[in-house]
């Protein structure tokens, strides 16, 4: 029998947990980092190959070489490239597509480091590089937590 009120808090359902670490009464373990994800599309006039290669090589180099990358303690940087083939395969699973071509993920120790990185002069060089492969006309969508 459910307990609680999910409109104002959490409503438990009757569930036998397979793993104790997921039990309702086990504290949630959050990693001590801020994870920020940025979703974007390729420029319409560039090929997928150009987008992916430039993003993987040139943009990565600019990002990791930026003085602010180390100075503001970027803990991790990853890229996800969503190819046309991957988009098509995802649709066959009956899912709604998050229709972006790339996602950059950065981990910071705290919000101050994240803000310092994104307001640094080196970040301006990264933003200028976007003109070679990234469509920013509809903005870059973000998620953080």
Give a written overview of the molecule.
The chain is α+β, with helices and mostly antiparallel strands and 145 residues long. It has a single domain, classed as 2-Layer Sandwich (Alpha-Beta Plaits), CATH 3.30.70. It has 5 helices and 5 strands; from the N terminus they run βααβαβααββ. It has helices at residues 48-65, 67-71, 84-92, 111-118, 121-129; strands spanning 34-42, 74-81, 102-108, 134-135, 141-144. Strands 1, 2, 3, 4 and 5 form a 5-stranded antiparallel beta sheet that branches. Helix 1 runs antiparallel to helix 5. The longest helix has 18 residues, at 48-65. It is globular. 14% of the residues are buried. The mean pLDDT is 92. It comes from Hapsidospora chrysogenum (strain ATCC 11550 / CBS 779.69 / DSM 880 / IAM 14645 / JCM 23072 / IMI 49137) (Acremonium chrysogenum). InterPro entries: Dimeric_a/b-barrel, EthD_dom.
Describe the structure concisely.
Helices cover 34% and strands 21% of the residues. By secondary structure, the chain is an alpha+beta fold. Helix 1 packs antiparallel against helix 5.
């Amino acid at each position: 029998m459910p307990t609680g009120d999910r409109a104002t808090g959490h409503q438990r359902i009757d569930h036998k947990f397979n793993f104790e670490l997921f039990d309702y009464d086990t504290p949630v373990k959050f990693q001590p980092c801020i994870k920020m994800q940025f979703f974007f599309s390729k420029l319409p006039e560039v090929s997928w190959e150009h987008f992916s290669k430039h993003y993987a090589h040139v943009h990565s180099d600019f990002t990791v070489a930026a003085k602010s990358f180390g100075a503001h303690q970027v803990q991790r940087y990853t890229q996800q490239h969503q190819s046309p083939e991957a988009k098509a395969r995802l649709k066959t699973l009956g899912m709604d597509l998050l229709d972006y071509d790339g996602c950059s993920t950065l981990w910071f120790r705290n919000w101050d480091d994240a803000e310092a990185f994104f307001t640094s002069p080196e970040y301006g060089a990264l933003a200028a590089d976007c003109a070679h492969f990234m469509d920013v006309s509809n903005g870059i969508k973000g998620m953080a937590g």
